[in-house]
Amino acid sequence: MKNEISTLRNIGISAHIDSGKTTLTERILFYTKRIHAIHDVKGKDGVGATMDSMELEKERGITIASAATFCEWKNHDINIIDTPGHVDFTIEVERSLRVLDGAVLVLCAVGGVQSQSITVDQQMKRYKVPCIAFVNKCDRNGANPFRVIDQLRDKLGHNPVAMQIPIGLEGDLEGVIDLVNMEAIYFDGDNGEILRIEEIPENLKAQAAEKREEMIDKASLFSDELTEAILEEKEISPKMLLGALRKGTLSREITPVFMGSAYKNKGVQPLLDAVNNLLPCPADIQNEALDMDKDEAPVVLSTDPDKPDVALAFKLEDGQYGQLTYIRVYQGKLAKGSTVVNVRTGKKIKIGRLVRMHANQMEDIETISAGYIGAIFGVDCASGDTFVSPEINYSMTSMYVPEPVISLAIIPEDNKSQINMSKALNRFTKEDPTFRSFVNDETGDTIIEGMGELHLEVYVERMHREYNAKVTTGQPRVAYRETITKRAEFNYTHKKQTGGSGQYGRIAGYMEPCFDEEFIFENKITGGSIPTQYIPACEKGFRLCLKKGPKLEFPVTGVKVAITDGASHSVDSSDMAFQAAARGAFLEGYNKANPVIHEPIMKVAVETPTEFQGPVMGSLNQRRGIIEGSQEDGPMSVIEAQVPLSEMFGYSTVIRSLTQGKAQFTMEFAMYKQVPKPIAEELIKQKNQAKDKIKQAK
Amino acid sequence: MQQANHIEVNQLKWLGYSTDNILPDGGFGAVSARAGVGKTSLLVQIALNSMIRKQPVLHISLDSPVKKINLWYKEMFQLLVQEFKVDQERELWETILPYRFILTLKVDKFSVPRLEERVKDLIGQEIFSPRMIIIDGLPFDEPVKDTLLELKPFIKNLNAHVWFTVRTHRHEQPGPDGFPIQITDVKDLFDTIIQLHPEGEQICIHNLKGGSGEANTAKLVVDPSTMLIKKM
């Protein structure tokens, strides 16, 4: 492993499902000589693409978990994280983006910028990841890379710059014209491994000159030297041009666009050149940690290998030899045998085995330097943990983790499955912070929670395949919440005299809705009507009430409680008495504060051929959806709507039959919103029936 | 929707109109201005006012994506609730949202039969039945008379009215009748024509056609910092 940071690239390949990113990765690994044969996704040879290491991924033709891999191209080290394309797995995408320095956004030359590309792009924006785009599938019928470039500008707000133009399109795709060097590149050999450079074909010269002008024009904004060269009509060298384009790319002000067809082995090597030339090395990116000893003050990390170590565990996997933890080192150098501290737990860890990953194969290494990605063995930790040298106490900024929106009861079929299911759940919940599990106290069922139907479905299948845990699943359930809608006052006295010392506490105040926080507690007591030592007990009492709402036993959120008055007794008052008084006060106020039930609302985007727009809108409308709008773009339309999650179960089947399988949709959590009255009544009815059942069973 | 009452009635009424809708059923209105002066923001205010009165608005944009239009509405709504000190902003937004539908089309794909097909589909499925339509970005630099004539009876049948944005250019002088040259040929089809004109640090709202023309009508401006309509 070289330790020259300027020749290191940590990149992700992000895109919409079916835009061909796994095929592209496969070709990259082939040309960089990491693999010696090409296998396709859903391959007829039964091997499957190298990056889709999980059996399930191979079967479904989708990428679920990111696999990290390493390759070399023209004296540069490239770490690639293959990222999943489904919204349901966005925690994987987000985690990958957190540790990456740059990304290749893969777009389909036919489908263009689809709704999932928009989600992925937003994530890249959030983590300020510079990117280049690759318009794939230029060999397909209907391919139009320039339409995709327009969409990059119009739909994603990028400033795209065509770096190439295709030589032929659809079935006639022969190669690409490099607008920087002004040459035609053809891809010969069985697998396109031999590059043949020729003069630009006569019929494409004018178009190439025009597109090069556009490129130079955009690049000139980032280089005075280039602007001068243009004004003085001097020769513009590729180095000068690439320098300017790189500057624009790193600041995310331009997006260089490359094109080709990974499946037909065209355009991949120039893309690899672009990764080297245009995407940042770790030293180009400023990473920050939080100094836990200085009240979480931000500290800028440096890639200096002599500084104390800072590394982030961004992914866990259960391997043959125990837990495999993927890490990125941000500062210092992690060496075999060295000691680091897990900042979250405070535990010291001795680094045993360090490896570099290539999908599910690995290679032992001695050190991982700052900027590099690798994996460690046998370390018990959770995803998102920070490892540091013992002399510092830094934590990497926490990753954004959305709350789960859907739950499912799972029941093991036998005792063996029960044990295996526990093992699987323990592993999955550590690996994926958006996947949670718990046991329902009342029903005794194991409940799993996640970000969508597919998210949970995949974990259930993984339990079966990887852990041999046979489980049956119940109906998916939505994570409802309770809240209040108006201000209400309370004045409750808890008084109990049962011999010996009694219990006494009075709490008065008010509660009101709050929108930005889950719960706010405010102590407005003056004059000591409740002694200071009992205030924490009051807060605790109120907080305990939030777990199970009085209305339907859903968690209560968005409530501000202020206590303004109260009373205590010198002998009978205690923490317990005030906790009980707080519970009574909460119930009193809550019932007067017009409590309502909230449900998760999903932002749904359906991409459909325009001819099916009507039925799709109708289907969303039937599901209590509010259609925000419809965007017609050529033969396709995108319908954007807000739909309650509870109405979206099984929607993929519905939409397939409505549109002859031609439409697809994505959804992500948008907000919580009040449930309409008839639905709330239905929920109350169901809850009461369930309660009766439990009573009867007892 | 009690809170909504705090938000002022359609401010354009101050120009001397007798109803909140300003336009009669089947009527056409136009807001003309140079690029960037505030045509869309003015129409979004009129649309928000209509939504608050539970009058469904179909916003057709011929150049911007749904997301961008949605952002216009959110921002103008926030400015309005701040201006009129409305509490429970979130509830009000959620209440009025179902009264808006955004449709974006490419300019070259816009035609009256296509619009008819879309609207009939929305009405037929009981998804949305517009009372006010905004057509933002129709190229008035090109001949549009036939399109407007074709649109008129359809709108009348719907019992709706339409607002258009008309983009003018800095270098052009108005026609002999004082109307922007883009609208001179079709002005008879319009009930109301409003012009936004930057004067010094203000953007003045001129009523070129429509309204009572009474002396008690107010002089209106658009506040350049918030883009909200105000009396001078």
Could you characterize what this model shows?
The complex is a heterodimer of chains A (698) and B (232). Chain A is an alpha+beta fold. In chain A, the strands form 8 sheets. Chain A has an 8-stranded antiparallel sheet with strand order 18-17-23-14-15-22-19-20. Chain A has a 7-stranded mixed sheet with strand order 2-3-1-4-5-11-6, sandwiched between helices. In chain A, strands 25, 26, 27, 28 and 29 form a 5-stranded antiparallel sheet that branches. In chain A, β9 (183-188) and β10 (194-198) form a beta hairpin. Chain A is globular and about 100 Å long. Chain B has a 9-stranded mixed sheet, sandwiched between helices. The interface between A and B is medium-sized, with 21 and 25 residues.
CATH architecture of chain B: 3-Layer(aba) Sandwich
In DSSP terms, counting alpha (H) and pi (I) runs of 4 or more, how many helices of chain B? 6
Q: How much beta of chain B, percentage-wise?
A: 15-25%
Distance between the amino and carboxyl termini of chain B: 29 Å
| CATH fold naming of chain B | Rossmann fold
**Could you list the spans of chain B in which at least 5 consecutive residues all have pLDDT below 50?**
none
Structural classification of chain B: alpha/beta
- Tell me the count of domains of chain B: 1
Any idea how many domains of chain A?
A: 5
Query: In total, how many beta strands of chain A?
Result: 38
How far apart the termini of chain A lie comes to 65 Å
Proportion of helical residues of chain B? 25-40%
Categorize the overall geometry of chain A: globular
Query: At the fourth CATH level, what is the homologous superfamily of the largest domain in chain A?
Result: P-loop containing nucleotide triphosphate hydrolases
